[in-house]
Amino acid sequence: MMLKNKLLIRQLKKAKITTLEDITEENFEKLLSLIDRSYTNYDDDRNLYESVSEIASSEFQALNQDLKEKVTELKKINNTIKDSIEYASLMQQAILPSLDTLDTFCQDNFVCWIPKDIVGGDIYLINTLDKDSVLIMVIDGAGHGVSGGFLTMLVKAIEEQIIAKIKDNTLAPSPALILEYFNHNLKMMLHQDQESKSNSGFDGGILYYNKKTHLCRYAGAKTPLYIINDNELKIIKSDRKSVGFIRTDCNQKYTEYDIKIKKDTKLYLTTDGMSDQEGENNTRYGIERFKNFILENQTVTLSEQYVQLKKDFMNFKGDFEQSDDITIMGLSFK
């Protein structure tokens, strides 16, 4: 109604009628003609607008329906992928060793394994070689998620070859030699000797322990070993060369360390996932915080340390997203 009134006012101005006294037979006929033309145009415009609106509404509904169908399709694809990854997670957890094995060789221990995603690139491996000796590995594979998970499967496959060779006496249970075997065979599997684009590998540490002789040996690839003896913290920094990756030489050698085990010796083998965790004010959890934690809690059982360490980590992380996969082992051998 308001629009029609505005149209009438405009036509009155065109007919030069502002008061009743301005009305003459001539300009009144002009006014009627203008009004008739204006309202005809208005009806045409209104019909056109309604027609266009109806078409636009129809197209919008069709577009909206198409969008809904695509969203439904994407949800199905996402659920399929998620189901596959969750199944892969079950497979990855299935290849993790039973922690009961550690109880045979340790008076106290803990294992903290927290993947960043459903599957992860970290893995730990424990193998009894005979009634007196055990081989323990902590592996930090390149990447996390699906790519990291695939790499852990390759690592597991090579590890089974290694254990078979040790048991048939064709490979010594030497952590340094085992790292060399991993490096050579992983590079061969990924064709890294032939200009492969598969630039993958891992950092990690390997411990050998014989509970009868108390012989303990360690070798690491960019993975330190933390040792607490008599209130003193010692760190074996290990070699600065990873296992695999194009940049690592196929015949890379690794350093082996003998470790003196006392009654209250505690060993910690960890990937860099916890130390690299981001927190408030652009801070990181850091190695120093971890070192301080194990020093301050050295008289506490490893089982209790596990609870306190996870609590300390979660308090630091707060609402921040987890940065990387996390694996930490605390060991006190018999």
TrEMBL record:
Database matches in SMART domains: PP2C_SIG
**The keyword Hydrolase appears for this protein:** yes
Residues making up the signal peptide according to the UniProt record:
none
Keywords linked to the UniProt accession: Hydrolase
What range(s) does the PPM-type phosphatase domain occupy?
A: 101-333
Listed name of the protein: Response regulator containing a CheY-like receiver domain and an HD-GYP domain
Source organism:
uncultured Sulfurovum sp
Q: Which GO terms describe its molecular function?
A: phosphatase activity
